[in-house]
Design brief:
- Catalyzes two steps in the biosynthesis of coenzyme A. In the first step cysteine is conjugated to 4'-phosphopantothenate to form 4-phosphopantothenoylcysteine, in the latter compound is decarboxylated to form 4'-phosphopantotheine.
- One of its GO terms (cellular component) is phosphopantothenoylcysteine decarboxylase complex.
- Keywords: Decarboxylase, Flavoprotein, FMN, Ligase, Lyase, Magnesium, Metal-binding, Multifunctional enzyme.
- GO terms for molecular function: FMN binding; metal ion binding; phosphopantothenate--cysteine ligase activity; phosphopantothenoylcysteine decarboxylase activity.
- It is a single chain.
- This protein is an alpha/beta fold.
- About 25% of the residues lie in helices and about 25% in strands.
- The protein is built from 5 helices and 14 strands.
- The strands form 4 sheets. The chain has an 8-stranded mixed β-sheet, with helices on both faces.
- β9, α4 (about 150-160) and β10 (about 165-170) form a beta-alpha-beta unit.
- The two termini are about 25 Å apart.
- The structure holds cytidine-5'-monophosphate (C5P).
- Cytidine-5'-monophosphate binds near residues 94, 126 and 143.
Length: about 220
Amino acid sequence: PAPGRLAGRHVLVTAGPTHEPIDPVRYIANRSSGRQGFAIAGALAAEGAAVTLIAGPVTLDTPAGVERVDVETAQEMANAVAKTLPADAAVLVAAVADWRTDAAPQKIKKGTGTPTLRLTENPDILTMLATSPHRPRLLIGFAAETDHVIEHATAKRAKKGADWIVANDVSGDVMGGDANTVHIIRAQDVESWEKLPKSQVATRLATRIADTLQETA
Ligand code: C5P
């Protein structure tokens, strides 16, 4: 096969949820399936990129040609991302837990009163990359929104210092589903795509990434 337009490029992708332990048997999680991120990693590899996929706990097969690093918590994900740099582009699809709690070393027992969880904010990996001396040339975040999708995602792009935000309309049943309605928010414009299978969102996004990395050499 032809070498692909992303041959020689290193692209970092995060995907899936993170799990924040409460004790050895319990954790805080979210409904991310990891499917959109895994599809993007696969589409980038199919375009010839060297892809490092940093995956939270999911039950998905590793896409062909992708190097996968499994992590559990947000802090582990942040460390794995830092170790993976430098990269030409980064696509942060993971639904990172916003908060963690200090895990109890033993299983918390019932019957001694209702425990209170004290939450601590997790590091924001997207912001960390945006301000890093090794900032990828093309930095792409995702934003799951239920309302005022474009408005909220536009504000998020500016606040986090991403080049693009892929705004994800999750007012339907997207998390875990097979299709996705997205808007690509850039500094200069917004591109709205029709509802597409996650595999097609992935191939279109890989095409746009290849176009952009070629333009800016
Ligand atoms: O603020 P919000 O969580 O909606 O931002 C979503 C974007 O930021 C996604 O690209 C997600 O992967 C990234 N993010 C991150 N680290 C966090 C929280 C979000 O990289 N702790």
